[in-house]
């Protein structure tokens, strides 16, 4: 998601900034107290004692020091601002002073965010620094919050124009001066109050931008149910405001990440879940529920996400927003890029849009425009892209939340999927023009580009929408649904119930559904494209769950298997992420499907190709183990069938012949157990544990479990480390019991994906963990006493 950088990310450290400041102004001592005034102010700011504001100095003293230190008169202006902003003031003079201060700070902030600046990280920004140091930030917070104070039962009021100036100055200070954003984030009552300023269109953009930056550094997530009249506030937003508001929502509905890798381990996640159960819903979950309770909220998001460019805001209002962007620095880089696009197209079309310098405008507040000029189409498209990627992110998070089924019903009802299908070619996956928007310091292929971000967000949404949900068939059109029915009829198998239950009025229209369009662009994607991972994940999510022969054949007929094998074998893909997503997709596509194995054998038709394929599998079992699992399960099923078509595939397929060999299975089993440990288990590599269990469950079915355990013991001894593997496996299985026996979703996924009842999974694990050393199927029977280490606490190490 494209978001404004947090103030904490800019500039030097606090110590270096302070040192550079003192050096720049030639540290001096003077009255009213000896020592350096700036350092004393900084100390007072940190401790809350001593010198903290300009009002603690006389105007004469400040004027005298300003001559030496070149403070641009800011301390004196703050002194006047304090005097004219008391409770009984009419604020007229106060606003005039703000008008004087604002340009002094905006010039520095513009220099900070624009490419033209030739400043190092060590450079300080004297005006914003001095403004904050002499108490300007705290004073503006007090001024903004004056309406919360009642005098004789009446609320104080300040004008929108004055609020706008205060917000602009605060944001500029946050941009240039380290620590200001964090200090504002600690003022929870102020953060909540800021939401009320979004009721005015005049102050909405400035307020939203400041809130977004503050929430980006806030340690504790804000609760939206504490915002006064949230439902009314959001309901009164126009579509443009709602889209911008989604930038704030992205921070408030996503679970906070501590940045600690340990938090991503299953051990840590389980501990966090236990803690969460005792604490109740998280702030993110509360915020999601608050939004979903707002009438029409999801419907409006769906309309924004599927709105065509021609339906977006007219030229005049868009130019008004661009002018605000020009003076509002959060969007300076975006606007700069948009203006370059406009200029390139204008030169080509002999038309122009003339933007005034900051502050210059016509009487109606709009930039000067030629009467025969229309807003360039690329500008309209980019405007819509910037909105849609924020909206899609919010919808995606809601789809993964506790109210998933409720959100699914709503976005199906409001036709999000067919709407996105209609936008696919012209907006979502449009061809890049020569002047496609690129942010400073990036290129068209960079993931920071709005075009790229929109595509990735779109693919993430499809993945969340399709994953283990019957609404996935809305990705097809009526003709494609009929094709699924025909595939089932020809194979003489029952139609999938979810296909029969799909509401045909909610599916995609046109010649192709969204899934088919995705397959088409997927096959054309360049080898080095970062989209390959997301595309494969989105398509794989369509196949997840109970295996559907009709779904597989639908994709096989469109050449998906050959495309995957080309990427793995012929292009010799090097990206681990892409390889993992392709192996996972290939496994789901081939599982239990004889036709898929025939197609595989037809493509991998030489020993050389097969060796390349095996090399890719063996290069990282964490990435390829899901394919190994699917082939192992398929082999077991095929071996129990007498159909001639199956017999033929078993006799010809190199992959099935390779997996059928006991030494191959033992090699996989040994490595799968060896590359994981309880302390390092994550959502990504826990599949290695489940794949090893699948191999042993199938061995148990054939009464060969003791044989496999004996072979593991021998392999241990051959490595000169007796007990190290089986002890590790014992601990992993103990964790498996704790993890899966209390999580219905995970156990259901295991059962559906393997077609092995979960009771058989549990029984096999219990047999392996049997403490009886006389049991031929118990792990302890194969660990010699001196090397036994099976009772270690999971929290150790």
The profile of the biggest β sheet is: 2 strands, antiparallel
* Bulk shape: elongated
Integer-rounded radius of gyration = 32 Å
> Count of helical segments?
40
How far from one another are the termini? 37 Å
Structural category is mainly alpha
User: Share of helix among residues?
Assistant: 55-70%
Average pLDDT taken over every residue: 81
Strand content: under 5%
Spatial ordering of strands, largest sheet? 1-2
Give the beta-strand count. 2
Low-pLDDT runs: 1-35, 115-123, 258-263, 322-342, 350-375, 433-444
Question: Any descriptors?
Answer:
797 residues, mainly alpha, two-stranded antiparallel sheet, 40 helices, elongated, phosphatase binding, TRPC4AP, Transient receptor potential cation channel subfamily C member 4 associated protein
Describe, in plain words, how this protein is organized in 3D.
The protein is mostly helical and 797 residues long. Helices cover 62% and strands 1% of the residues. The protein is built from 40 helices and two strands. The protein has a two-stranded antiparallel ribbon with strand order 1-2. Strand 1 and strand 2 (154-155) form a beta hairpin. Helix 8 (160-176) packs parallel to helix 11 (201-217) and helix 17 crosses helix 18 (332-349). The protein is elongated. The two termini are 37 Å apart. Residues 1-35, 115-123, 258-263, 322-342, 350-375 and 433-444 have low confidence and may be disordered.
